[in-house]
Specification:
Layout (H helix, E strand, L loop, with lengths): L21 E14 L6 E11 L2 H12 L6 E10 L9 E7 L8
Antiparallel strand pairs: 1-2, 1-3, 3-4
Length: 106
């Protein structure tokens, strides 16, 4: 199976201007397999993404989603955001289930 190297945990947020501290986000992200255009190979693609208030909520959702039809894998992870600059750090994985892309830090 070919894994699309461009798959990275996606994180986007709306910043609240009255916050001035670091904020932690808990994410569940699922993956599906699709046919690569013209190559005949299967590739991973991000399916769904959910944001939660706690690590356990994100992990529980990843575990449920990983068992659902059509889902080949799920990640639950947390990222820290500097709300002043908008910069988001590398993900810290809580759980990785099923067929998920490799993650390399830059």
């Amino acid at each position: 199976m070919f894994i699309n190297e461009s798959i990275r945990p996606k994180v986007s947020f709306v910043m609240n201007s009255d916050e001035n501290t670091e904020k932690t986000h808990y994410i569940c992200q699922t993956y599906v397999e699709t046919d690569a255009a013209g190559s005949g190979q299967r590739v991973l693609k991000i399916g769904k993404q959910f944001q939660y208030s706690t690590a356990s909520q994100a992990q529980d959702r990843a575990e449920r989603e990983a068992r659902s039809e059509g889902c080949v894998g799920a990640d639950a992870y947390m990222v820290s955001e500097d709300v002043t600059s908008g910069e988001v750090g590398a993900p810290s994985f809580l759980v990785r289930l099923g067929n998920v892309p490799d993650f390399e830090t830059s």
